[in-house]
Amino acid sequence: MNEEEWLTCNYPMPMLEFLQGKASDRKLRLFASSCCLHQSVWRLLNNRARALVNVAGRFAEGCAAWEEVLAAAEVAPRGTVRGGSWISMNPVHLPPLSQAERAALGLAVENAWEAAWGVIREGTNLLGTTPCDLLREIVGNPFSPAAIDPTCLAWNAGTVVKLAKGIYDDRAFDRLPIMADALEEGGCGDPDVLGHCRQPGDHVRGCWVLDLLLEKS
Asked: What is the C-alpha to C-alpha distance for residues 49 and 45, in angstroms, rounded to an integer?
């Protein structure tokens, strides 16, 4: 995969293959959780499946134990379909509910990359190109990683970092354009950083700009 393909790809498998051994477990798990939190999957899940998605997201952030993920997976629905087991080699041919439930169960795979792969494999028919957008949201551009001048982070008693932490903690992604203004005032002129903060659309935990500012990997 090259940079142009990364920026324009609308099928997630090659992107995830490229990231094997490159992305952190945290980012891979946040990506997988965000796929399950997407409305196309989330709306189909019952409370037990949603509990699994939520605890998997907390595990990605170091706020839950792996045993909690396994316990939630144990009671989550398994995508059973009439006439056969939930274990099928053709997930896209299953009813949407089963696809969503199987995607959520993918979060309970111990290897982070394999968990991400399983989630998008099971949910691909529901998610469409969403995983590609989420990978670009969380990983950014791996061919041209951004950097922030420390003087920008220190500007005005650390205003940018404080804003970033508040956005992250509160999931208040609507404040990202405000942070972009602060970044500019602090001396940041990176068009990718500023453009990402101001672009319309959904942002999620793991957003590469917030991670960059908060020194999260």
From this structure: 6
* Amino acid 83: pLDDT: 47
The closest of 185, 193, 192, 139 to 160, measured between CA atoms, is 185
pLDDT under 70 in the chain at which residues? Answer: 80-92
Closest CA to 60 of 100, 21, 23, 33: 33
- pLDDT tens digits, 9-46: 999 999 999 999 999 999 999 999 999 999 999 999 99
> How many domains would you assign to the chain?
2
Check whether residue 51 and residue 74 sit in a common domain.
yes
CB 19 within 8 A of CB 139: yes
Among candidate residues 140, 210, 126, 199, the one with its CA nearest the CA of residue 169: 210
CA angle (33 as vertex; 32, 37 as ends), nearest 5: 120
